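Tutorial handout. Part one gives the primary structure; part two gives the three-dimensional structure as tokens.
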Amino acid sequence: MLLLNFLNNFDKNIMNFYNSTFFSVIEFILGIYVVVLFVDIILLLFQRGLGGDLRDTLIGMNVPAELTTHKNRLRKKWSKIREKIEGNNESLYKVAIIEADNIIDDLVKRMKYEGENLEDRLSKINPGQIESIEELRKAHQLRNRVIHEDDFKVDKKEAKEIIGYYESFLKEFEVLD
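Part two.
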């Protein structure tokens, strides 16, 4: 009986406290506190660079916007490279390979991999981070031969193969289909 009486009074006391002015003031103060904390968190995220942090968190590395949100720009550049290897001009094949290498080098550099050139940067990448890393290395080695060997010949088939190596990197980031 005493326990039942206590529980009824306890329930009434809780409801009285919940409906009291004191509890309303506490709710108001806590509401303001939550809003201030939320605004602080947003301001801190913007100060740190929200976009880069989100990309780093979601993808696991710093990825340039061309590989995430601005893919159309890169697709347009890439279509010009593809046009160069569709013709029958060996000089254009070489230009296409050099331009493709420059684009990939710029992207890898902006992924914050350190090194003086693409070869150095590629050596810093773990195979688990970029699946097409070996193809990129092969393509860059062939590009080096194009640049440094005056008598190096590139036929259409080989040019397409080299460009395909670079494309596998872009397909990995879903820039190309």
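Part three, for discussion. The mean pLDDT is 82. The chain has eight helices and no strands.
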